[in-house]
């Protein structure tokens, strides 16, 4: 029983599971008075040297007074945290608040001394670094802004923990002791360090699951048949290079093997380590299995067993208990209800899945939340016919099932620097942490293509087994944010495979100029039309006629690839009567040889009923793409080295049965290459001299003191926006005709008269607005017309506003979504835009490049740039407005919604005619806090 030690209640929200540097997990929690025995046991296992480093003197054992001091905390001025595995301490950290003179103090003192102790057996696992992140977050919550630590010079490991953390530091040396002082406010460097450690730890945790040296299948039937027996056979038949064991507590004591595999009644009977356990027992028996695996030191679990959250509330609780139980022993879980995992590397050859056949080795990483979709994807990538044909290999495959622990984010962390994976394909039914997913996707897409298809897009719900954060964003907005992060978003499984094949086999195109050649004029024209539909720039198709020989194809393709005005080539081919397999092979060889001579440009083939050609085009064992262009595109400084071309220099040409499918895949590749090029020089978040961040913060604080959530009135809205240089066109209330005239005289003629009632606001199509009223007579007449049409002034809430220069009416919005974060949106005003959903979105903070692309990415953007002879509007002023709104919501997360409507953009300048702002306590941002696994 964990209880409060002194003044405050036990802070349960400080509990967290973390992934350590080696991929194992540990539990971080506050230390309480109930931990006395654990602390003593922990201290006894610490070496004398580590004790000396902690207390600066020989300290063989803790006194009763020490134990009391280290286990009794008030959780404000004195806090201790422990990292635990299997319920036992492996490391501790504590802080004590101090005053300016270094003695114990209370708030408002904002400095504390911090000290660590890590069990020797767990040093080097990154435990101290993880504890520092968590104790720093706790200290910030309690009003502490700085840590001080005194360390012996010889304790280089602990000095490195502090210096590598990325905080702003001050270092001094006095009386033989190194004193380090550092602020706790997150910095760009501290976040970069945290993200890099997160990537290494989470990637390593998945690597441990995919590259085990030994595997135990638990739940292997005594007779043929059943899930466990099937998985065991699949692992054995794939040629797993490690040690394999069959486990079933119902085996006879005399039984020594099953299907040639050593048999045991329990994991704990196995003589030697077990890296991975595949669990295929009924859900009611899994808990006991997890305990046995934890005690034996198993590193990870693949839980095939069903009967968890997908089965209802009782199963959901069982799933939560499963995750907590496994993490207590430092194990990660794929599943439950998982299809399994595959690793085709010759050094591993692991097929711990229900797939009866080992996929061919290749360089495509495949993740599927659905077992059924996983089967379909493996099948499509494996077979030669039925869609995109040809041999295409998989590097690794993960089916996460209910995704209770290991998720797509974790697997993406692994693939980011996996030298055996060049392309990542993901089928997602839900995104548990969109903010983190977009961050990881942007990093991954900078070095290798990431193609994603998402199920349940249109009103569907996430599968019951998936823990998903609530989001208010529509699917179209989420898709736009994923594209901003470099994700290649596709709509179908077929499109996923089509794009994956091209990206795995061919270089990235330098642009959208497409040469089309072939022996069918009609097929060439269809391809030309498909290119135009996808926004590509096709050159006139070249018809080689049906009499074209393989040599003609080779020469034409060589000329097209040598043309500086061509970025990619689509070859169309129809069968030649009577030539058969020999003709197919000759044509395939001709195309391959021409493509090999110009490896920097992609080549695709559209074929009609040419199974032999498709097979011949793909007759190679590797799917590694030529990297001439990819190598030329910049990557982050910490990116893994790019994968080279295949050893044999082969160039695989993907073949498609329809022009539309080939061209759509090419369009995805063009867009991705453009994103890679554009993000090579990231934009900047500009600074504005007239931004008054402190004034805005003071105003927000005063307004929120009135209530937890409120929509600001016109005066407060204008004042807050004014602190960020956003000027709202003045509007005066007009409850009577006389007051309307007085307002017009104050503002100056001509004026506009608007009804601001909710059902009429921003609905010029309903007639609730009268413009260009030049004098009192026109204003009174307009006022009379509005009241006759729509009701009394009390219902209409009319206002008078000075006329703004004419231009294009636009809308700017920003919202804080609890899952995705702050999102800035832009579109043109009007019912047509709303009907078509023509709105673009970007994540905040928005850079200058983001703002420029945002206004150009809507379909109606030509109206801003002089469509049909109209004057182009001031897009520079519009981009600046977008960046100012972005700065406002980024600086002040209490601003949870901003709407500027309409914003009239004129040839010179713009006018914000309407604005609304909503304030609320900001949602928690776990991306700025310490590393944690999702809570259960």
Describe the protein's topology.
Layout: E1 16-19, E2 25-30, H1 36-44, H2 48-55, H3 64-71, E3 78-85, E4 88-98, E5 111-118, H4 127-141, E6 146-151, H5 156-163, E7 169-174, E8 177-183, H6 188-210, E9 214-218, H7 227-237, E10 243-247, E11 257-258, E12 261-264, E13 276-279, H8 283-296, E14 300-303, H9 313-328, E15 332-334, E16 340-343, E17 350-353, E18 361-368, H10 371-382, E19 394-399, H11 408-416, E20 423-428, H12 434-445, E21 450-454, H13 475-484, E22 488-490, H14 493-505, E23 513-518, H15 521-533, E24 537-538, E25 542-543, H16 550-562, E26 568-573, H17 580-596, E27 603-607, H18 611-617, H19 628-632, E28 655-656, H20 659-679, H21 693-704, E29 710-711, H22 714-722, E30 731-733, H23 737-747, E31 751-755, E32 769-773, H24 776-790, H25 793-796, E33 798-802, E34 808-817, E35 821-828, H26 831-836, E36 839-843, H27 848-856, H28 875-891, E37 895-905, E38 910-912, E39 915-919
Helix pairs in contact: 6-11, 8-9, 11-12, 12-13, 14-20, 15-20, 16-17, 17-18, 21-22, 23-24, 27-28
What would you note in describing this structure?
The chain has 936 residues and is an alpha/beta fold. Helices cover 35% and strands 22% of the residues. The chain has 28 helices and 39 strands. The protein has an 8-stranded mixed sheet, with helices on both faces. Strands 11-12-10-9-13-14-15 form a 7-stranded mixed sheet, with helices on both faces. Strand 20 (423-428), helix 12 and strand 21 (450-454) form a beta-alpha-beta unit. Helix 8 runs parallel beside helix 9 (313-328) and helix 17 (580-596) runs parallel beside helix 18 (611-617). The longest helix has 23 residues, at 188-210. The chain is flat. Residues 1-6, 384-391 and 620-649 have low confidence and may be disordered.
């Amino acid at each position: 029983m964990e209880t409060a030690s002194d003044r405050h209640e036990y802070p349960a929200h400080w509990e967290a599971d973390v992934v350590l540097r080696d991929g194992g997990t540990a539990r971080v929690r506050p230390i309480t008075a109930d931990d006395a025995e654990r602390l003593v046991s922990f201290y006894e296992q610490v070496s004398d040297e580590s004790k000396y480093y902690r207390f600066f003197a020989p300290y063989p054992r803790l006194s009763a007074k020490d134990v009391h001091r280290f286990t009794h905390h008030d959780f404000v001025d004195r806090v201790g945290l422990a990292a635990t595995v299997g319920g036992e301490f492996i490391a501790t950290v504590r802080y004590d608040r101090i005053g300016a003179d270094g003695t114990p103090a209370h708030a408002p003192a904002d400095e504390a001394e911090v000290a660590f102790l890590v069990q020797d057996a767990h040093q080097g696992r990154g435990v101290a670094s993880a504890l520092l992140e968590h104790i720093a977050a706790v200290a910030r919550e309690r009003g502490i802004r700085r840590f001080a630590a005194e360390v012996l010079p010889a304790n280089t490991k602990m000095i490195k923990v502090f210096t590598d953390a990325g905080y702003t530091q001050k270092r001094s040396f006095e009386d033989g002791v190194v004193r380090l002082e550092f602020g706790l406010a997150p910095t760009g460097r501290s976040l970069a360090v945290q993200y890099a450690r997160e990537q290494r730890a989470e990637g390593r945790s998945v690597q441990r699951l995919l590259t085990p040296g030994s595997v135990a299948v638990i739940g292997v039937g005594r007779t043929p048949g059943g899930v466990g027996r099937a998985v065991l056979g699949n692992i054995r038949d794939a040629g797993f290079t490690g040690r394999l064991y069959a486990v079933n507590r119902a085996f006879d004591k005399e039984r020594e093997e099953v299907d040639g595999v050593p048999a045991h009644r329990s994991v704990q009977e196995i003589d030697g380590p077990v890296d991975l356990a595949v669990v295929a027992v009924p859900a009611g028996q899994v808990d006991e299995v997890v305990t046995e695996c934890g005690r034996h030191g198993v590193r990870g679990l693949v839980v095939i067993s069903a009967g968890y959250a997908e089965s209802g509330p009782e199963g959901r609780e069982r799933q939560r208990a499963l995750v907590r139980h496994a993490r207590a022993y430092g194990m990660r879980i794929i599943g439950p209800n998982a299809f399994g995992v595959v690793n085709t590397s010759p050094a591993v050859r692991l097929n711990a899945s229900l797939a009866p056949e080992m996929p061919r080795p290749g360089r495509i990483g495949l993740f599927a939340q659905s077992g059924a979709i996983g089967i379909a994807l493996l099948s499509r990538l494996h077979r030669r016919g039925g869609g995109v044909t040809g041999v295409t290999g998989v590097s690794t495959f993960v089916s996460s099932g209910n995704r209770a622990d290991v998720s797509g984010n974790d697997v993406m962390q692994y693939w980011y620097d996996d030298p055996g994976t060049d392309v990542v394909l993901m089928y997602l039914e839900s995104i548990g942490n969109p903010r983190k997913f977009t961050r990881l996707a942007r990093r991954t897409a900078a070095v290798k293509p990431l193609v994603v298809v998402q199920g349940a897009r249109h009103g569907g719900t996430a599968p019951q087994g998936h823990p998903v954060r609530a989001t208010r964003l529509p699917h179209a907005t989420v898709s736009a944010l994923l594209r901003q992060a470099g994700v290649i978003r596709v709509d179908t499984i077929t499109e996923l495979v089509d794009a994956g094949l091209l990206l795995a086999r061919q270089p990235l195109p330098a642009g959208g100029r497409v040469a089309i050649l072939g022996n069918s004029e009609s097929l060439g024209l269809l391809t030309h039309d498909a290119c135009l539909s996808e926004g590509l720039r096709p050159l006139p198709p070249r018809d080689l006629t049906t009499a074209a020989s393989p040599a003609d194809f080779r020469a034409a393709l060589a000329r097209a690839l040598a043309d500086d005005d061509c970025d990619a080539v689509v070859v169309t081919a129809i069968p030649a009567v009577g030539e058969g397999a020999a003709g197919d092979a000759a044509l395939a060889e001709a195309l391959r040889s021409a493509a090999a001579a110009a490896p920097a440009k992609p080549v695709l083939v559209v074929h009609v009923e040419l199974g032999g050609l498709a097979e011949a085009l793909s007759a190679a064992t590797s799917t590694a793409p030529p990297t001439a262009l990819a190598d030329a595109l910049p990557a982050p400084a910490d990116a893994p080295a790019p994968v080279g071309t295949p050893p044999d220099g082969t160039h695989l040409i993907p073949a498609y049965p329809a022009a539309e499918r080939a061209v759509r895949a090419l369009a995805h590749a063009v867009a991705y290459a453009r994103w890679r090029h554009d993000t090579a020089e990231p934009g900047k978040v500009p600074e504005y001299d007239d931004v008054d961040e402190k004034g805005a913060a003071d105003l927000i604080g005063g307004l929120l003191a009135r209530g937890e959530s409120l929509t600001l009135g016109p005066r407060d809205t204008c004042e807050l926006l004014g602190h960020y240089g956003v000027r709202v066109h003045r509007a005066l209330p007009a409850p009577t005709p006389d007051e309307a005239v007085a307002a017009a005289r104050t503002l100056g003629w001509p004026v506009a008269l608007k009804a601001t009632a909710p059902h009429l606001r921003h609905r010029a199509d309903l007639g609730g607005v009268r413009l260009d009223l030049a004098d009192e007579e026109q204003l009174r007449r307009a006022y009379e017309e509005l009241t006759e049409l729509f009701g009394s002034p009390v219902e209409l809430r009319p206002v008078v506003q000075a006329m703004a220069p004419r231009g294009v009416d636009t809308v700017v919005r920003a919202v804080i979504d609890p899952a995705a974060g702050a999102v800035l949106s832009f579109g043109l005003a009007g019912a047509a835009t709303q009907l078509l959903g023509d709105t673009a979105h970007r994540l905040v903070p928005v850079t200058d490049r983001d703002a420029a692309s945002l206004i150009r990415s809507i379909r109606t953007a030509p109206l801003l740039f002089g469509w049909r002879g109209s004057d182009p509007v001031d897009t520079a002023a519009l981009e600046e407005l977008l960046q100012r709104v972005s700065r406002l919501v980024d600086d002040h997360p209490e601003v949870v919604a901003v709407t500027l409507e309409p914003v009239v953009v004129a040839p010179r300048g713009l006018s914000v005619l309407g604005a609304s702002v909503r304030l609320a306590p900001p949602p928690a941002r776990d991306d700025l806090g310490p590393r944690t696994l999702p809570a259960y």
